[in-house]
Amino acid sequence: VLFDYEGITVDRLDLSVLGNPPVGSFYEIGDIRTKILGITQSIRGFAGTLIFTNMVKAQEILKTPPGRCKAILIKLSPGVESAAFMSVLQKMFPRNEVLTTAELSRRTRSYYIKNTGIGGSFGFSTLIGAIVGIVIIMLTMYTSVLNRTKEFAVLRALGARKFDILVVVMSQSLIIAAIGIFIGFLLLALFLSSTLDSKLPSYMPLWILAYHALFTLIMAILGSILAMRKAIKIEPATVFR
Q1: Contacts (Cβ under 8 Å, ≥6 apart) of 44
Q2: Which residues contact 135 (CB under 8 A, 6 or more apart)?
Q3: How far apart (Å, rounded) are the C-alpha atoms in residues 145 and 166?
Q4: Quick one: which of 7, 32, 62, 145 is 20 to 30 A from 117 by CA?
Q5: Alpha helices in the chain (DSSP H)
Q6: What is the Cα–Cα distance from 34 to 4, expressed in whole angstroms?
Q7: What is the tens place of the pLDDT at every residue in 150-191?
Q8: Coil, helix or strand for 93?
Q9: Are 128 and 217 in contact (CB under 8 A)?
Q10: pLDDT tens digit string along 78-130?
């Protein structure tokens, strides 16, 4: 594809927008004639469509003067040490930045988080969700303790220690957290599956799931603190009231 002067690639998700052109058909980009010679899968930019073509055609589309470019992608051969090669490149081009794939990815994510409304909106939504979750768990656990005051008093009268009561309340909160984790992961899986072939496909690394589960457990424990304090203050004599 890239060796053809007019050749470009189009992502499969964008074919419907372009009228479902077949491979080999011609298409104009900014009055520049191009030829669709390849179809990519789920390669999309954050702000729109990404296409691939050769450098000459890219300079023509972007109206970049010959011999100049904005970025150069270099793939190292197996066995080449990236750090040493980057050091050589930096000395050859002192006025340019030489970045690894990981660094470029980190800068891109940081830019969109800090310079757009994504970071603020997501962060605020997460904070509100956490507060609401803690409050709901707190009310649920506290109400549960109030409704079972006599049961806890009986346990105390039978010799249960405050630590035993604490374990009971803690177990209840962890059960609630486990149910919430299961339902949440199920809904998350359905969401990721439904957006897989959409124009905004979602992706979540597996390691984030562990952090989500841990965060949910912490929320459950924090939300049950008030109920724990109430439960351990119940005296055995309460059963006779």
Answers
A1: 11, 13, 14, 50, 199, 201
A2: 223
A3: 11
A4: 62
A5: 55-62, 82-92, 101-115, 118-147, 149-157, 162-194, 206-223, 225-232
A6: 10
A7: 887 888 888 888 888 888 888 888 888 888 889 988 988 888
A8: coil
A9: no
A10: 888 888 888 998 998 888 889 988 898 888 888 888 887 777 888 888 888 88
